[in-house]
Specification:
It catalyses: D-ribose 5-phosphate + ATP = 5-phospho-alpha-D-ribose 1-diphosphate + AMP + H(+). It comes from Nocardia ninae NBRC 108245. Belongs to the ribose-phosphate pyrophosphokinase family. Keywords: ATP-binding, Kinase, Nucleotide biosynthesis, Nucleotide-binding, Transferase. With about 325 residues, the protein is of the alpha/beta class. Strand 3, helix 3 and strand 4 form a beta-alpha-beta unit. Helix 8 packs parallel to helix 9. The longest helix is centred in the first third of the chain and has 17 residues.
Length: about 325
């Protein structure tokens, strides 16, 4: 079952990933764009059939444009609730990017709650039983906050390896400790040396990085950078600044799980691109050009990622029952 945003943007973004997952289901029937809008703009969900006893895979894009993510999230919640009302036995949600995954800890000084926990509660209240996503943020903590809802986050190792392989980097930089989970297996597959930077955040859009550049300064090959999310591009700018102190003629290729550039991020990426420092940008969850972005992000093949997602599901007996046979249902 797909929501409107998925159908509108999915074909150019993640259609191949969705199709590969669908192909693995033993039986499936698609219901497209079940959410609509009333004339006043409020969400309206129409499921013109009974789902009694069915298992549903509900798909939605929450990262098309950041300002509209809240609307798409509400449409997803209404769709889940509609499926449950129509008698669905079990509902699995697939969202390539999990909105609010970065707000997993409260900021007591600023009076900011852990909104990640709220999203988990809303999904459970709507009727979801499980969430599948491409990893971003503190996966283990999100899993804890979402309980008893089952949560699976898959690292997009294969697509990022495919994007970086033609670059042939000798060094791969993880901007911080959080990026190591993704960067380490990528570096191992590429046969390059992993360098982990020490990051200190100044504010929401700026960071300071320290990098052990031994070896990088004397190597002419492009430097690969792997991160889970690029938004304000503050990390990329800080990393480029630090590396160019050691190697002024720096060629840097960035590969990330999710690209959600803010206006500041677009400006910074454009500046690095115009300066000849940023020679490539690849992402798993956004393939179309971003308005105002001078370079076209590359989206590598995702067939192997779909296999990894299904493999992760099959390690859990409850998920395995949904995806191996019986009354599996998707739309």
């Amino acid at each position: 079952m797909t929501c409107l945003a998925f159908e509108t943007h999915g074909p150019r973004l993640l259609r191949a990933l969705f199709d590969n997952i669908m192909a693995a289901l033993p039986t499936n029937e698609r219901l497209r764009s079940v959410d609509r809008r009333f004339p006043d703009g409020e969400v309206c969900v129409e499921i013109a059939r009974s789902l009694r006893g069915r298992r549903v895979l509900a798909c939605q894009i929450l990262s098309v444009d950041a300002p509209f993510s809240d609307n798409e999230l509400l449409a997803l919640l209404a769709t889940i609730h509609g499926c449950k009302t129509a008698g669905a036995e079990r509902i699995i949600v697939f969202v390539p990017f999990l909105a609010y995954s970065r707000q997993d800890r409260p900021d007591l000084e600023r009076g900011r709650p852990a909104t990640t926990e709220l999203i988990g509660r809303l999904l459970r209240s709507a009727g979801a039983d499980a969430v599948v996503t491409i990893a971003a943020g503190a996966t283990q903590r999100i899993e804890m906050l979402y309980r008893p809802l089952r949560f699976t986050a898959v690292d997009p190792i294969a697509p990022i390896v495919a994007a970086l392989a033609p670059v042939r980097p000798k060094y791969l930089v993880a901007p911080d400790g959080g990026a190591v989970r993704l960067a380490e297996p990528v570096a191992e597959r590429l046969g390059c040396e992993l360098v982990v930077a020490a990051k200190q955040r100044v504010d929401a859009e700026n960071v300071v990085l320290n990098v052990d550049a031994a070896g990088i300064e004397s190597d002419a090959a492009p430097v690969a950078v792997v991160d889970d999310l690029v938004a304000s591009a503050g990390t990329i700018v800080a990393l480029a600044t630090e590396l160019r102190r050691h190697r002024p003629a720096l060629d840097m290729y960035v590969a990330c799980s999710h690209l959600r550039p803010t206006p500041v991020g677009i400006r910074r990426i454009n500046e690095l691109y115009s300066a000849g420092c940023l020679i490539g940008l690849a992402t798993v969850t956004l393939a179309a050009p971003v308005e105002g972005l001078r370079m076209v992000p590359h989206m590598p093949p995702v067939a192997e990622l779909a296999t990894d997602i299904l493999a992760a599901l099959n390690t859990d007996e409850t998920f395995a029952e949904d995806f191996r046979g019986g009354r599996a249902f998707s739309a």
